[in-house]
Design brief:
Layout (H helix, E strand, L loop, with lengths): L1 H10 L1 H41 L2 E5 H5 L7 E2 L1 H9 L4 E15 L2 E10 L1 H7 L6 E4 L7 E5 H7 L6 E7 L5 E12 L4 H6 E5 H7 L5 E2 L1 E6 L5 H8 L7 E5 H4 L1 H39 L1 H9 L4 H37 L1 E2 L6 H8 L5 E2 L5 H23 L7 H5 L3
Parallel strand pairs: 4-9, 6-8
Antiparallel strand pairs: 1-11, 1-12, 2-10, 3-4, 3-7, 3-11, 5-8, 6-9, 7-8, 13-14
Length: about 400
């Protein structure tokens, strides 16, 4: 029956190749678009998380709801060492404290963040936005936001006085030399942000082997969930792990909305192609009515005739899918290596949305979902189209069919 089905497809080669070409084009278009979506989502997530928050954070459960200085992770060095042993994971600590930041007669409320500059520089992009000076290299140096510098009238080399409340109510005071000024582009951060070395801030606020959070960075974003599963057993009941989905829910929501819009477009395209296949098999039924009547006169059952047409539909869809995948996979594989320049994607607003900081190219990413969805839908749709079109074979009268022109 397979040999007969292939010979039947060759009887009208032009129609066969036109229909297979339609299926192949839909597979090419949908597979490429889904791969482009996957690549853009990965860039969006990676760029957003690499800017400041990290791919995940570990903190004290109560600190998530209400950040307070005394809600810390204890024995942080031991926990950091234990987590760093997980393959593909980098961990670095942070402390955060609110304090009064002063210079001469001017004072502002600020958020003092103690960080490991050497580790964070390798993984986070916020430090690429230092507009004046350098990253702190000494324990008594600090990096401040651009708006804070303007409001205080501060410049690189000036001294900054930090005064706050340490753990257990003790007075925390420190003097930092401004080594650099950073402009994050986020007004709230630029007005309040003070970056200082982790050890210096922890000592100022009387924190001993403690941190408010551990930032997590993974080498491969797709491995975040498996790595998170390895982390969970290592945490005490007082600690919680938040991935980027919990830290930045708006990004996840925007991705889901974009996916929904994309799936609607893909569905409409595939449905239109399926209707074209229905038309092809309706024509097959009219053209081969006499042939089907002959088969039935020779003893074939209607379901056997329908099965024969189903074999033809399977070969036709397989031909179209092979054509589509044969074109789409090399194209996607090539663009995964070289990328698509963002300035070719649209206007200024689109460029700003897609660049996400330092990214200037989009890299499509072929996944099982992007490469298998369209082929499976088209193969199933073609089978259904053939079945709907040829189910009327059951009502064919062999004698009447043999007399058909």
């Amino acid at each position: 029956m397979i040999r007969l089905a292939w010979r039947n497809l060759q009887r009208n080669a032009a129609r066969t190749w036109l229909t297979a070409g339609g299926i192949g084009f839909s597979v090419l278009l949908v597979s490429f678009a889904m791969s482009l979506q996957s690549g853009s989502y990965e860039i969006m997530i990676d760029s957003a998380t690499r800017y400041f928050t990290g791919h995940g954070q570990i903190s004290e459960k109560r600190y998530v709801d209400q950040p307070r200085l005394d809600r810390t992770i204890e024995n942080v060095q031991a926990l950091q060492a234990e987590l760093s042993a997980i393959d593909g994971l980098t961990v670095f600590p942070r402390v955060q404290a609110f304090a009064v930041v002063s210079m001469e007669e001017k004072s502002l409320g600020g958020m003092v963040v103690g960080v490991d500059f050497e580790a964070e520089q390798q993984h986070l992009d916020i430090y690429d936005n230092v507009i004046e000076g350098d990253i702190p290299s000494q324990a008594d140096q600090a990096l401040i936001g651009a708006s804070m510098a303007r409001n205080l009238g501060a410049a690189v080399g000036d001294e900054l006085v930090v005064l706050g409340s340490g753990k257990q109510g003790a007075v925390a005071a420190a003097i930092f030399e401004i080594s650099g000024i950073v402009e994050t582009g986020q007004a709230a951060l630029d007005r309040t942000l003070v970056f200082a070395p982790f050890a210096g801030v922890a000592e100022t606020f009387y924190l001993q082997d403690e941190a408010h959070m551990l930032l997590l960075m993974v080498d491969d974003l797709s491995q975040l969930n498996p790595i998170a599963a390895q982390i969970e057993p290592l945490l005490s009941e007082q600690l919680t792990l938040q991935t980027w989905q919990q830290l930045m829910p708006l990004i996840e929501q925007s991705i889901e909305m974009d996916k929904a819009g994309g799936y609607l477009f893909y569905s409409l395209l595939l449905i239109l192609v399926t209707f074209a296949v229905v038309n092809t098999f309706v024509m097959v039924l009219y053209e081969r009515t006499r042939e089907f009547g002959l088969f039935m006169a020779l003893g074939m059952r209607p379901w056997q005739v329908i099965g024969q047409v189903q074999f033809e539909a399977l070969l036709l869809s397989s031909l179209g899918v092979a054509l589509g995948l044969g074109l789409s996979y090399p194209l996607i594989n090539y663009l995964t290596g070289v990328g698509i320049p963002v300035d070719q994607m649209g206007g200024e607003e689109a460029i700003q949305q897609m660049q996400m900081g330092t990214m200037d190219r989009i890299y499509p990413r072929a996944t099982w979902s992007s490469m298998a969805t369209a082929p499976l839908v088209m193969m199933i749709g073609t089978q259904l189209a053939a079945l709907v079109s040829t189910v009327r074979v059951r009502s064919i009268n062999p004698v009447t069919a043999l007399r058909a022109e």
